[in-house]
């Protein structure tokens, strides 16, 4: 099975079925559509929910609640034996779906995927009309569902692999996500297309899977390896290849991870390949994997600073690493992360396996991006745990989605459009992209630094708790605010003054900015400020000082 072709097909089918749904919906004003799966246990699970036309938000929310609360009423056993499309009149709708009292007409279409599994498409109309004749390519829908199941299986396998590895080697937690990110950065610089980048992301996500077969005492060994231990550790790329080569969904990725420890000069392992003999994706992973290893803590070493790690890549061009790919990585790294942090926006298409946190009031739920339809504001999220609050609360208020693969740096606001209790998957509809990014970890530090907030004639002491190239977060004594009669709210313009001391040298800074986030609960009293109208030289001086400050903290073991 060709891995690239499978994912090309997945994207095409997903886009095609989305357009087909949209075509159906636009034929009639005031419509909703559900894709329901009947499992072997006869449980009904809604997998897709969409609306079109003039459907009030309250009605959308009501339908979502009904679907999530009791997915399908118990008197629908006849659905399991349905073999032909069926149209329900208003009386029949009221009989079978009494809670959906505003639906006038409903059309039900069965789609078989497996012998013991069936998918049902339900189309409901809120107006008294006869639905237009809808011709479905049933085989196309079957293919879409097969590919979606294949995609979700890969997703679950990768999560399982990495949980096992992180239990064996706790200090590498997050390594998979960072390698995927760094590899994708290189892919973007050299112009790989979306399908190629997807394959590379998956290879990055499982590149260390062979460590499952490496003894724990080696993975957790402190100090220098013996020659025997070193040889066993080096076997992990071959172990990974053996584990994956016979799995149809990973056979193309298996060869990529086999060679990701080869060196450009032929001094690597396991085969001693050199130059372009090493597959392109393997050469990319070699840089991404090594860079993250250099800037991360390990049982056998302390971490480097980012500047030191970049210098190490340069020093090993033509030896360990492909020179052109090193230049691509450094160019992308500096361009997107350092020189123009304000231009590093929330990605339009969240990367596969991107970690996210859904914020509902003062509750937070971790998960991963499953996929996002192209040219759509809907993001499909797979949660780690069930949501533990009243669903009405979620539908009634705007929610925030944080993209964790950038250190909680990117976020969007929107609504939860649908939540599937059965497989803990939700559809999040993006309503607002604030266009502001809390700076990256390497140019944004969790610090404890005093400063002054200047608003009008008021100078108020504050404590800065996070500081970066395009903003900061601070806490302030609310009693002091009340004393001077100052109310801090969103869009309040302020000036922040502070100093940074690095190796006996004090640097002073002053920035004008706007408050873009205020406390949401009594537990969180911090304010987020976005810098505005900043001179580039002033910003570069701050970033340079922050980098020196971080390297200083790392060297002293304080970060």
UniProtKB/TrEMBL annotation:
Residue stretches making up the HD-GYP domain: 150-345
PROSITE patterns registered for this protein in UniProt: HD, HD_GYP
Lineage of producing organism: Bacteria, Bacillati, Bacillota, Clostridia, Thermoanaerobacterales
InterPro entries assigned: Cyclic_di-GMP/3'3'-cGAMP_PDE (IPR052020), HD/PDEase_dom (IPR003607), HD_domain (IPR006674), HD_GYP_dom (IPR037522)
Protein name: HD-GYP domain-containing protein (C-di-GMP phosphodiesterase class II)
Domain HD: 172-294
Domain of life of the organism encoding this protein: Bacteria
Pfam families assigned to the protein according to its UniProt record, in alphabetical order: HD_5
